[in-house]
Input
Amino acid sequence: MHTFSETGSVPAFLAKLWRLVEDSETNDLISWSTDGRSFIIQNQAQFAKELLPLNYKHNNMASFIRQLNMYGFHKITSIDNGGLRFDKDEMEFTHPCFQKDHPYLLEHIKRKIATSKQQQLQAQQQAEDKSALKLEAVSRVLSEVKNMRGRQDTLDSRFQTMKQENEALWREIAILRQKHHKQQQIVNKVRRSRRRRSS
Output
């Protein structure tokens, strides 16, 4: 079993978690994933009932998960691992500094510090500023779309007018052709009658 320096630089919660995951005797309830980059809790109810009280003096699964979140662990969903995990009672957690055979990384895992009121206000202000910028961008895009629609409508109107003018021209050409054809027939008749007279 891999160990790490007991200098107090690793919080008790993480030290206990490491020992739990490393312990081959508890593999049926908690163990490393195949690649060793995450750990899997096999049976939540049994894990909470049997292992949590021995290590954390409580059997509250929600409290344990909340602690994991505080230390920056992320739950891996079935979507994250390609939909391979369908067992609802199975949970998988990962942290870049919680890896099999790398106990020295544990001291880099820090608990999240609760943000102060000022930081919360700043974060809220930044979120509002971003939201305002987004609204401004959306408004600008909508305005551009409206202008483009206006130009498109103008072009459509011009095209329709040209189409109508073109149709009118073709009708005039057809009428002129008919007139020309009739005139040609008259000219041909006159020529034939003159030839008869002269002969």
Summary: The two ends are 132 Å apart (CA to CA).
